Amino acid sequence: MKWREEVFGANPPWAPTLLLVDDDKVQAWTGRIMSLHMVRAVGVPSTMRMLRVLSQLSRADDQAPAVEASHGQISRKHFLGQFAAGSAVVGGLLLFGRLPAIAAPAPAPEELWVKENLTRLPQNYSQLVDFDVAHRKAIYGALPSHVRSELWLEQFERYEREHPGLTPEQRKVLEFAREIASQKSTFADLESLDDDLPVSLARDLEHLRVSAIAAFGKADGRALFASLGPTDESAARAAACGCSCKSDWCDSRCVCCANCSQCHCNCSNLCGTMFLSRCEGTCG
Q1: Are residues 68 and 178 in the same domain?
Q2: pLDDT at res. 277
Q3: Which end of the chain has a smaller Cβ tally under 10 Å, C or N?
Q4: Is there a contact between 134 and 235 (Cβ–Cβ < 8 Å)?
Q5: Are 90 and 125 in a shared domain?
Q6: Domain presence at residue 104
Q7: Which parts of 72-196 fold into alpha helices (H)?
Q8: pLDDT: is 102 or 244 the higher one?
Q9: Residues 18 and 135 in one domain
Q10: C-alpha dihedral over 230, 159, 270, 122, to 10 degrees?
Q11: Which range marks the domain in which residue 19 is found?
Q12: Sign of the C-alpha dihedral, residues 41, 234, 241, 118?
């Protein structure tokens, strides 16, 4: 339970969960995405055997007297029944040699929160960074382009003020970032990313990424140009894709999906330099 809460928060989903624990790093998956990771970890035959046993347990529940779940819980039958989606995923792989399309994921809690608070979202940097990373991104995606521009400019200004010993090369990179962020058109449409970015903007963003890594290093560059405010554990939400192949800030590399409808994580927007690329993979 402790590991599940570490990934999903205080109220983790009551569903079959696959956990990967590596020293102090914990990852977790549920539903169809869990089945994809099981296949990668133990192979199709072992995954199918596990799902078959759990399916048999579920059928046994169908024949047993019904027991009503207590308030705030789900029944054992419902719990086991959630493996059906995983069986369909693996079955599609066996039958067709590819993974079946996965339906769009349900809205995350932070997305629902934003929808309920559209008229009173934070409008400045100080207010925004009071939220965790997951809420920050959801809020950012709902803000108008001029506010998004102001947020990045404020972050760059604060960084320069707090680091008076910047090198000439670092100051040059920051100035170039300001030029990009000061143009309101840069953030005009967050629903049309990557392929629809103007060629000149895409070129400038890649130049900024490469220059920033050279001048600041990948960790500091990522914190300054590919994240708003300090990071926290909510940034590593297990089901969500967290990196972009076209604007890759991973320490190693972004393991990307060829097709987001058949992906090991939930694709979304707001990754890469200034959140202007698609999230389409996980750092490997």
Answers
A1: no
A2: 92
A3: N
A4: yes
A5: no
A6: no
A7: 76-81, 83-96, 109-116, 125-128, 133-142, 145-162, 168-181
A8: 244
A9: no
A10: 70
A11: 2-96
A12: positive
H helix or E strand, kind and range, residue 63: helix 44-63
Closest CA to 136 of 4, 277, 9, 231: 231
**Nearest alpha carbon to residue 30 among 101, 99, 102:** 102
What Cα–Cα distance (Å) separates residue 15 from each residue in 49, 84, 86, 91, 108? 19, 12, 12, 20, 16
130 within 8 A of 79, measured Cβ to Cβ:
no
* Residue partners of 244: CB distance under 8 A and separation at least 6: 194, 254, 256, 271, 272, 277, 278, 279, 280, 281
Average pLDDT value for residue range 102-128? 86
Letter for the amino acid at 221? G
Cα–Cα dist 120/127, whole Å: 11
- Report yes or no on whether pTM surpasses 0.70: no
Contact 99, 128 (CB under 8 A): no
Assess whether 131 and 77 both reside in one domain: no
Do 8 and 44 fall within a single domain? yes
- 86's tokens: 């995983």
Regarding whether 155 and 115 lie in a shared domain, the answer is: yes
Q: Are residues 160 and 241 in the same domain?
A: yes
In this structure, are residues 14 and 1 in contact, taking their beta carbons and an 8 Å threshold? no
- What's the one-letter identity of residue 83? F
Considering the domain boundaries, does residue 101 fall inside one? Answer: no
**What's the domain count of the chain?**
2
Q: Which residue has the higher pLDDT, 102 or 284?
A: 284
pLDDT tens-digit map of 15-69 = 667 777 766 666 766 655 666 666 666 666 666 677 666 655 555 555 555 444 4
